[in-house]
């Protein structure tokens, strides 16, 4: 596979570029003279031209191509735009101010998006509503249909969604291992670090001291997952911190699981008020109960998306370390229909 190309003979600038490339997890090919760049020019996914060799490169008449950047350590130098046009660059990148932009550009060049993962958040209207089971079941259903799926446990007080899957002993990273991550991360690296079962990758909490998920860490995880996955399912707590708000802001749809009784609807209304601050497409998933599904939806002012069925033997299966029973069970059929609804609307 071709690597991004840096064209510069300025050692200080090259040191900066190598450091930025390392932050993006990318190796560079380097041309120290304009003439040395020609063998790499057409094949490199991204070309970074140092301002010191821009005029020399333009003089060689390189064929037009996309994804060329002019990089400089000078600030607000008007001559840079002339050089930018001369080498066919699409932008001038000033270091160190635009380092983060360059990290993203290098990462995208090295690992272009292969998929466009849809993010679905799941929240419970009150404790024990069944949101975690629905999140795990939806992710399992998608992965068994061949969709590359990431299941994200965003509830540090939930005991770990890996337990719901019967995979609490699986080796791999949990949130505390990656909570300090920010900036770009490749999905391949994320998938390698986390417990993965076929097409399903799981980011769960451990059973130790709970902590908030930093916004930057959630952003890095979801950005990677959207590039490498078909579906991302995020299990949310009822109290939202910055990390959960970040997930909601990226959600195509948020499902609110509600017990169909008066207390359940009243509690769900309070949760709904929080969710509405961060996301737009909200849908209620009522549990069977004293109130009819249309009454629950009308009371909350959001549309319904089917009734989450009671599943015989579910609690017993989870207690003995088995995942939720799906397939042709009522829960399995519900998740299959819900998945079809969500993907058709995407």
UniProtKB/TrEMBL annotation:
Q: State the InterPro entries in the record.
A: Cellulose_synthase_operon_BcsQ, P-loop_NTPase, ParA/MinD_ATPase, Rv3660c, Rv3660c_N
Gene3D superfamilies attached here?
A: P-loop containing nucleotide triphosphate hydrolases
Query: Where, if anywhere, are coiled coils annotated?
Result: none
Q: Where is the Rv3660c-like CheY-like N-terminal domain?
A: 7-114
Could you identify this protein by its name? Septum site-determining protein Ssd
**Species this protein is from:** Microtetraspora glauca
Name the encoding gene, please: ssd
């Amino acid at each position: 596979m071709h690597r991004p190309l840096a064209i510069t003979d300025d050692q200080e600038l090259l040191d900066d570029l190598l450091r930025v490339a390392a932050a993006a997890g990318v190796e560079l090919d380097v041309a120290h003279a304009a003439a040395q760049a020609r063998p790499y020019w057409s094949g490199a996914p991204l070309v970074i031209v140092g301002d010191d060799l821009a005029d020399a490169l333009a003089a060689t008449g390189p064929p037009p191509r996309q994804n060329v950047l002019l990089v400089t350590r000078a600030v607000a130098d008007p001559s840079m735009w002339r050089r930018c046009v001369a080498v066919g660059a699409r932008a001038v990148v000033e270091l160190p101010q635009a380092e983060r932009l360059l990290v993203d550009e290098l990462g995208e060049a090295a690992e272009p998006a292969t998929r466009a993962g849809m993010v679905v958040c799941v929240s419970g209207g009150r404790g024990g509503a069944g949101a975690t089971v629905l999140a795990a079941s939806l992710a399992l259903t998608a992965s068994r249909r061949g969709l590359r799926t990431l299941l994200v446990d965003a509830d540090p007080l939930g005991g770990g969604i890996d337990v719901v899957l019967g995979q609490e002993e699986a080796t791999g990273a949990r949130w505390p291992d990656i909570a300090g991550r920010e900036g770009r991360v490749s999905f391949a690296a994320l998938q390698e670090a986390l417990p993965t079962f076929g097409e399903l990758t799981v980011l769960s909490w451990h059973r130790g001291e709970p902590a908030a998920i930093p916004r930057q860490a959630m952003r890095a995880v979801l950005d990677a997952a959207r590039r490498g996955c078909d579906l991302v399912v995020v299990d949310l707590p009822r109290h939202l911190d910055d990390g959960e708000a970040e997930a909601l802001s990226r959600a195509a749809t948020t499902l609110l699981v509600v017990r169909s009784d008066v207390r359940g609807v009243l509690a769900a209304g309070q949760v709904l008020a929080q969710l509405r601050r961060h996301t737009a497409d909200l849908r209620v998933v009522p549990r069977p109960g004293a109130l009819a599904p249309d009454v629950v939806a009308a009371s909350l002012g959001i549309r319904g998306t089917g009734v989450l069925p009671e599943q015989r033997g579910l609690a017993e299966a989870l207690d003995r370390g088995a995942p939720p029973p799906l397939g042709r069970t009522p829960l399995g059929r519900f998740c299959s229909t819900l998945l079809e609804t969500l993907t058709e609307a995407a």
